[in-house]
Structures are given as structure tokens and as C-alpha cells.
Amino acid sequence: MPKKPDQNPIWGQVHIPRRYYSNWAATLSKFARAPRHLPRPKAELSDLELVAALIPDLRADLVQLWEAFTTERAEVARYLMDPKKEALVYLLGFHLANQARTLGVLERVENRSGLLSFLAEADSLRLVDLGAGTAALSQITAGELLQQRSQLALAIELVDKNQAFLDVAIHGHKGLLGEEQEIVTRRQKLDEYLSRELTQGPIAGPVWYQLGYVWNEIVANPRTTQLLLRYLAAGLQQGRRIITLVEPANQDLARGAMELREELLQMGYRVLYPCPHSESCPMLERSRDWCYSEFAWERPPLMRTIDRLLEIDRQRIGCSAYLFVSPDLEQNLLVRRPGTSQEIVVGRPLLPRGRDPRRDFDYLLCSPDGLGKKKPESGPELLRGQTWSKPTTGARKGSTSSAKQEPSSEPGEGKQGPTQAKGSRQAKSHPKTQSTGKGSGQTQTRSKSSKQKRPKQKPSPSR
Ligand SMILES: C[S@@+](CC[C@H](N)C(=O)[O-])C[C@H]1O[C@@H](n2cnc3c(N)ncnc32)[C@H](O)[C@@H]1O
Fold it and tell me: Choosing a second label site near 21 at 20 to 30 A (CA), which of 170, 192, 215, 278?
């Protein structure tokens, strides 16, 4: 991944490379029933054309799952009550957006610390995707690591209680990384899996834990959460541990992620993203504040179609996202790239008599010295999770995305199988806390406490 500033004139758009988009379509084509209305005989259609034909058939299920994840989160355990359909619809509606979020985080992390390029130099690395779902996080992480160095030997372990999700996840991984890729699937409840792993003890070598949208599903179960924390602590003793945590961006769940951050830091982990320090979070002190990340997403064409159906707009996507490492890794990264003091955008509070949230705001910045505000100056808008740099000419030039601007026109193109990754695989409280101002944690999508109106945006930005 080339080193670039993580701001650009169009906010550092995240662009999903073609290999992930094609692989998504190939996986959907494999698991979906033939669409009712096809524009041409099936054999003549590309995977993307098949998916385009499939979307209207699945609209009602998509809306139902979207509602479950946003407005009726308490009911989320029920999903669609049909595991196969649930996995398929999740893949259709959420997988690529979760990949875009993960990619956005990895790009910012790489730009700041060089984590991926450092890890790719290892002989081998284990990815453990806990509550894997369709494996959005581990697929992007694997794909991006292999972009750094295709010889890196990856061992992938996917854990989920739902076999239908695992079937989809493994197909997607193999499509992306090749049939020879070692993948272990565990259809188990996390507490069973974690108990056994704790009995066996932590394995040696680098391990990257992926926790995508699962913490909020287990947080009400003290046994599972305690086991998870013990498991992560045990890994810490071995060193060379990395954790990606992604959670919804809305107030309650984002604050849940902030609390988990505190636990992990007390345990001994260090945070590489988004925070500029590994001290207690100054935003946690004020119940009305919450921290999350934003990304501008250059949606692939079929995602725009899905967004139109759902009457949402995911040009801008949010999530609570964190990346933690064990202290040995932080030290290694600091030696390679000595840390510079950073200020991170964590809010855009409305000015006291401000009316237009797009214009009348300050940037709320988090730095090693605490929270502070700065006036926006000329140049592109900065998003939560991006670094602040004085907007001198060119300071925000360059692209965040590691991805080349690949064409994403379809349907109508030739039939494609999943593409391969390159290479042999065929690819304590903070001292200077300031008042953040009401609503400093708001934007992105309407949350229940937000009064800002945004066009065509569903409540609660959990996805
Ligand atoms: C919202 S999905 C997230 C999937 C994926 N990690 C992502 O980020 O897109 C949550 C997943 O966690 C799984 N899950 C939830 N609770 C679990 C538990 N106690 N044990 C195993 N899997 C669990 C669900 O089956 C589901 O696949």
C-alpha cells in the first residue's frame, strides 16, 4: 500500500478494488436462487448481471434485515429466521460496505504507522475472524496483506455459530485467495470456542483478531465477553497481536466500543487507530459524546442500486473502528517510523448560533494533550478519524485509497469469475478535556438524539 496523506480533496474516498467486487458477485451468484426475471439466458450473464437481476427479488428481505440492524437492534437476534437467506441478504446488503469500512481503516493505519507493510514481512500470520459472518473483515485484511507481499503465509480461522454464514465466508475467501488457502471454519458459539482456546493456550506467532459487528451481539452475555477478554489477554502475553474492532456508529453502541477500548488498554494493548494516544478516552467522560469514524465511499454501481431501493445513501459511511496492537508491535512500528504528534478529527460541533451543520462548525480534535477545537479553513472537509493537518496548499492532496481507480461499469460486461490477489495465489482520564459542545459526536446519519436532517438517510448508522 503506497504511503499517502489520509486526506484528499474529496475526503479520501474509499474505493473497493475490483477483485473484491467481482468476488462478492461471484459468491452471490453461487448461493442465490436464479432470479425470476433475467434479461438474457443465464449462461450469457456475468455474475454482476445476475446479481443486478437478483436485487429486486430480495428487496423485501433486504429492507427487513436493514431494519433489524438499524431501528430494531434489540430484535437483531431474530434476523430473518432463515439462516441461508440471512447470510445471502447480509452478503448482498452489508458485506461490501463493511469491506469499505475495513479498507478505510487499514489505509489510514498504514499511512500513519506502516502496520500492514511491517506485518507482511513476517513468515506467516494467523487471522482469526470471531463472529465472522460473511468474513468481510478477514477477506479485506487478507487481501491487503497479500497485496503487500504475496508470499506471506496466511492461516485463516473463521468462527461463527451459523453454518450458512460460514459457507458463504469460506467461498468468498477461496475465491479471493485461491483454493489452496488454508482456512479452518468453526461452527461454534463463541463461548465454546474461546473456552477451548483458553485451555489450549495462546499460539506463538503473529495473530490478527477480527471483531466485526459482533461485540454488540455478545455484550449482554457476561460469560462470552469475559472469555473473550481473557482470550485477548492471553494472546497479549505471546506478543505480536493485533485486533480490529468495528462496531456501529450510533451513540450507545459506539460508547460500548469506547468502553471496550478502555478495557483493552488497561489489559496492555495499545491503540493505533483512530486515537492519537493510548490514554483514557476524553470523550468517554461526557455521556453525550461518542467517537466514531467516517469514510467517503465510492460505491460500486450495484451498491448504488441497493441504496436506492433501501432509500439510504452510503456515500458517507460511519462506524466505530479501532485498531489495537500489543506493545512489542507498537515499539517495532515506532522504530521504523518514529511517531509524530497527531491531531485526529473526532467531531464537528455546531457553532453556538450556527444553523448550517455543513458550514457553521468547528473541528473537534483529539491530540495527546486532550480535546480542542479548531476553525475549519479552506480546503476539503475532513472526516472523523482523519488526521488534522494545517490546510496549507497541497496539505490534503493525494488519495487515501490504496486501490487504483478501477473501472466499475456493469452490467453488460463479459462474464468474470472471481479475480485473485496478485502473486502465487493466483492471485487514566485525560488532563486537558474540554467541553465538546452538544452533539459533537453527531453527523453521518440521523441517530435518535440527532435533530439534523439529512436527505434520504435511515435512522441509526449501525451500518
Ligand atoms: C452482524 S454479523 C457481523 C458479521 C461480520 N463480522 C461483519 O463484520 O460483517 C454478527 C455475526 O456474529 C455471529 N455471532 C453472534 N453471536 C455469536 C456467538 N455467540 N457465537 C458465534 N457467533 C456469533 C452471527 O452469527 C453473525 O454471523
Answer: 215
